[in-house]
Amino acid sequence: MKDWRESCRSRVGAKGLFNKLKEKLSGFKESITNRILEKAAGSIPIIGNRSEPAAAQKEIRPASAELPVKTPSENRSGIAGATQVEAVQPTRISIVDKARSLIFEREVILDEKDLEEPLWGLEMALLESDVALPVAEEIVSSVKSSLVGSRKKIGSDTGDLVETALRSALLKVLSKNVFDFDEFIKNAPKPVKILFVGVNGTGKTTSIAKVARYLKDRGYSVVLAAGDTFRAGAIEQLEIHGQRLDLKVIKHKTGGDPAAVIFDAIEYAKAHKKDVVLADTAGRLHTNINLMDQMKKIVRVTKPDMLIFVDEAIAGNDAVERARLFNESVPITGTILTKTDADAKGGSAISIAHVTGKPIIFLGVGQDYPDLVKFDPEWLVERLLGD
Ligand SMILES: Nc1nc2c(ncn2[C@@H]2O[C@H](COP(=O)(O)OP(=O)(O)O)[C@@H](O)[C@H]2O)c(=O)[nH]1
Ligand SMILES: [Mg+2]
């Protein structure tokens, strides 16, 4: 089978996932790199490798008045034996360019003061991208501790140095809570009961259909429970997915008790030896006490093996805050973050697991059934820092 990371890559392919954040991180890399080069330029006599001063001199010669002249033998593009002599045109070399050539294989020590401004810029960039404050602070402090103090060998890898610091800071916050959905399904007693909750319109029903397809593709039998008995048309919406995916949908009438529908779906799954029950619920706001109490009742009656909170990445900090409050009300297993294909900021994807202490399980990356990506911190970091 094709490596799933490869298939994720092709799924989101040209889509501009988290483009704005990506741009900001790249701006940060550039500002630190320039800072390092400026510092190196200002401190060459002190930090330069004293055993090679001549080499350093040679490097900057093009900036001086003494221009190198190509000899005929060096003039490789010329006709052999020709006596044509061609002067290299003087070029304006900036202090950063000069430093770049001088400091290759030399060392610069970055102190807190050097990093103050770029790190402030990084924190602002993260906050503007809807990364939650404690998460932004943790990323900044982790980048700072990898860059400050130790002697850094500066060469062609200056950009790599900053990228490595950013990469490990992001991975640290993203990898705190990882969860292998496939392993869980494989090992859990059947039927595995999965309940989907969240506010209205975030993509619960669509995500249920995507997860159903994901499980079907992996050989599991699935039953759908039409637990959104509140919204007109919600049962029909799930039924259409059921028809398309050839899955049994257990339903009652609109206005019925959602806990009873889901309970029936579980009984059906037991009787027919189905592997997984995916239960839909009505959208509810975390501020609506009655509906939050109803959710608690559904959980009490149906005892789900997984409680998945669904929210949309484009909601940014709101999504993170809702996840936190849902998790406080009924402990969630993790989150499906939808509509990442429409989210340029990426802040909720970076913050939600950290703030709730529960993993992101899948990302929704579009409206079609295969537009579901199993969450992988390394994959996300690659999207943010890769070319
Ligand atoms: N672009 C995009 N749209 C999505 C995604 N997930 C769901 N949607 C759309 O969001 C809208 C609401 O989805 P629905 O599943 O009905 O939300 P629910 O009210 O939470 O059940 C629909 O138009 C879906 O097609 C996603 O990952 N990307
Ligand atoms: Mg729905």
Features:
387 residues; alpha/beta; Four Helix Bundle (Hemerythrin (Met), subunit A); Rossmann fold; 2 domains; two-stranded antiparallel ribbon; 16 helices; 12 strands; 50% helix; 13% strand; elongated; disordered N terminus; binds guanosine-5'-diphosphate; binds magnesium ion
What is the CATH architecture term of the largest domain?
Answer: 3-Layer(aba) Sandwich
| Number of extended strands | 12
Number of helices: 16
Shape: elongated
Oligomer: single chain
Tally of individual domains: 2
Q: Which strand order spans the largest sheet, edge to edge or round the barrel?
A: 7-6-8-5-9-10-11-12
Residue stretches low in confidence (pLDDT < 50, at least 5 long) are 1-5, 44-90
Distance separating the two termini:
26 Å
Overview of the molecule:
The model is unreliable at 1-5 and 44-90 (pLDDT under 50). The two termini are 26 Å apart. The chain is elongated. The protein folds into 2 domains: 14-60 and 94-174, Four Helix Bundle (Hemerythrin (Met), subunit A) (Up-down Bundle); 181-379, 3-Layer(aba) Sandwich (Rossmann fold). The chain is of the alpha/beta class and 387 residues long. Strands 7-6-8-5-9-10-11-12 form an 8-stranded mixed beta sheet, sandwiched between helices. A two-stranded antiparallel sheet has the order 1-2. It has a two-stranded antiparallel sheet with strand order 3-4. The protein contains 16 helices and 12 strands. The longest helix is centred in the N-terminal third of the chain and has 24 residues, at 19-42. Helices cover 50% and strands 13% of the residues. Residues 198, 200-206, 283, 338-339, 341-342, 364-367, 371 line the site of guanosine-5'-diphosphate.
